[in-house]
Structures are given as structure tokens and as C-alpha cells.
């Protein structure tokens, strides 16, 4: 009979990694129910609408959306297609790149975002923000910003998820 395999001890710095994963999963789970119940939206679909809603007069390229969401282009194409079929966004050819596609919020998408956003803010406050004082919240945002900047500097396209279909999207 063989000896049971004992996994190696995790490095001490993995504590921050596991804490980040746990908090991320808990926050995402908290907001997903609200988005589904009040807007029939997935988390990624809400993010697309929110980014497009930051400046409704400025269409967002699919590349920009993929980079900001850290999502594969093929997955993003599917999600944008779902939103377009629901009448929440409009895809238009890019005026800067003949192969590019831009996404803009439709009036229906803007209305849905306006309806869903207050409840979303309430849930985010409940599951994340209210656990921290102002100074801690600012420090956490600063630290996470450092990590995001570090990761983005290491990769020319940080939103690009390894997906062989991306080259065909």
C-alpha cells in the first residue's frame, strides 16, 4: 500500500491571495442575485452596461471592453450579442478601424441601468463597503490599484484571456 501524499505547505503570502479570492467570490455572489432579480442581467452583462453608461455619448470598442472586464473577446462577443438581442446595446462599425466594432448603450439599456443601479449600490455597500471605515476603504482601493497596475504592466493586453478563438473573433 502506498503512502498518502501530503501536499506541500502553502507559502505564507498565499494568505492574501486566498483572502482576495474569497472576498471576490462573496461580493460577486452578493451582487449576482440582485442583478438577476432586478434586471435579469449576469454580472458581466451589468459590467458592460455600466462601462457603456459611464459616457453614453462615447461608444466603447470591443477591445476596450474586453481589456476592462479582463474577459476573452469571444466571451464578450457572446455577452454583447445577448444584450443586443434584448435591445440594451447597439453594435456599430468603428469609424477608426474598418474591422472594429463599437458598443453603445441603447435608451432601453440606459433605462435598465438607471433602474438596477441603486439596488446594486446598496448591495455593494452591504457586502463590501460597510465593512470598512473611510481610511480602510481608501487604503484597500489604493492597494488593489497597485496590484492591478502591476499586473497590467506585465502584460500588454491584460484583458486578453488565453483563448485560441480570440484570433478569430
UniProtKB/TrEMBL annotation:
GO MF, one example: DNA-binding transcription factor activity
Superkingdom in the source lineage: Bacteria
Gene Ontology annotations of biological process type: response to stress
Keywords: DNA-binding
Positions of the HTH marR-type domain: 13-149
InterPro entries referenced in this protein's UniProt entry, alphabetically: HTH_MarR-typ (IPR000835), MarR/SlyA-like (IPR039422), WH-like_DNA-bd_sf (IPR036388), WH_DNA-bd_sf (IPR036390)
Pfam families xrefs: MarR_2 (PF12802)
PANTHER family hit by this protein: MARR FAMILY REGULATORY PROTEIN, TRANSCRIPTIONAL REGULATOR, MARR FAMILY
The protein's name in its UniProt record: DNA-binding MarR family transcriptional regulator
Amino acid at each position: 500500500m502506498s503512502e498518502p501524499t501530503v501536499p506541500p505547505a502553502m507559502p505564507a503570502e498565499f494568505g492574501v491571495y486566498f483572502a482576495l479570492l474569497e472576498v471576490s467570490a462573496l461580493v460577486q455572489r452578493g451582487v449576482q442575485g440582485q442583478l438577476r432579480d432586478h434586471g435579469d442581467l449576469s454580472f458581466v452583462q451589468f459590467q458592460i452596461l455600466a462601462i457603456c453608461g459611464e459616457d453614453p455619448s462615447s461608444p466603447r470598442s470591443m477591445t476596450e471592453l474586453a481589456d476592462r472586464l479582463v474577459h476573452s473577446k469571444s466571451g464578450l462577443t457572446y455577452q454583447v450579442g445577448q444584450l443586443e438581442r434584448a435591445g440594451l446595446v447597439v453594435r456599430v462599425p468603428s469609424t477608426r478601424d474598418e474591422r472594429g466594432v463599437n458598443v453603445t448603450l441603447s435608451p432601453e439599456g440606459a433605462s435598465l441601468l438607471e433602474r438596477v443601479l441603486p439596488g446594486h449600490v446598496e448591495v455593494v455597500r452591504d457586502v463590501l463597503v460597510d465593512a470598512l471605515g473611510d481610511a480602510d476603504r481608501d487604503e484597500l482601493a489604493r492597494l488593489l490599484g497597485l496590484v492591478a497596475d502591476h499586473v497590467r504592466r506585465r502584460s500588454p493586453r491584460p484583458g486578453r484571456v488565453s483563448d485560441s478563438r480570440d484570433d478569430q473573433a
